[in-house]
Amino acid sequence: LAQNLLHGVFSSGEAPNFPPETFRTPGYPLFILAAGAALKHPSFSIALVQSILGALTSVAAWGWLNGRTSRKGALIGFLYLALDPVILFHTPLLLSETLFTGLMLWALCAQWATFEKPTSGSALGAGLAWSAGAFVRPVAVYFPLLICALWRGSRKTLLVFIAAFFFLPALWIARNQRATGHAIFSSVGGVSLLRYPAAGIESLRTGEPWSVVDKQLRESAGRPPSGFYANDADLSAAYGKAAAPILMAHPFLLARHC
User: Fold this and answer.
1) Rounded CA gap, 92 and 178, in Å?
2) For the whole model, what pTM was predicted?
3) Averaged pLDDT, 11-32
4) % helix / strand / coil in the chain, to the nearest 5?
5) 143-176 per-position pLDDT tens digit
6) Who's near 253: CB < 8 A, 6+ residues apart?
């Protein structure tokens, strides 16, 4: 993905076949493209940049918390980010966790600023921060919806926040619509619904292992006449359609699975 971006194409395919990538969003590929160019060896360069980012995130958390909680509370927040084994394990790996953690801290700090002083500037910063996070991990696209419901500022600052957050994602949705016929931000949704909550429900209901149920559900979702899906968005739509009846029919098992 990152290499293909150098040619102006966001696809995991190889030339001359470049099917549009909709499962992943371009935030992390752009990051590793930039981080990998810092030194001669891209993998080492990315690991180093992410390690520095992880350290800066911990320090930023301490600085932000120190001004709003006790010194002890700030130290706890700092140590949590600095010494958590899971965070430390993922930091040097070619995964988006470190970048996403940093962006989420930025988004939370920016959002808190809108609660403390709801101005157009603070609303703009918060919206852009959440938007950046969504392009790294699509799950972040849902957080601002809750924030809109809890908004304390004026209608003007709310509109600024909405515009700042949704502008770039809306352009990406338009790109996916044009490329695949599906107006989606990411095609990860349908795939995740079938493979995790739906498969988890069926595993609880039948007593079969999740791996067996997961394979069965993916096979039962069917394939188009051509034998393969043209793109990830078509696959996600089919998987989402297969998952919906299972989720709706077993709400209590869904709650148990979650």
Assistant:
1) 36
2) 0.88
3) 86
4) 70, 0, 30
5) 998 899 888 788 999 999 999 999 999 999 999 9
6) 201, 204, 205
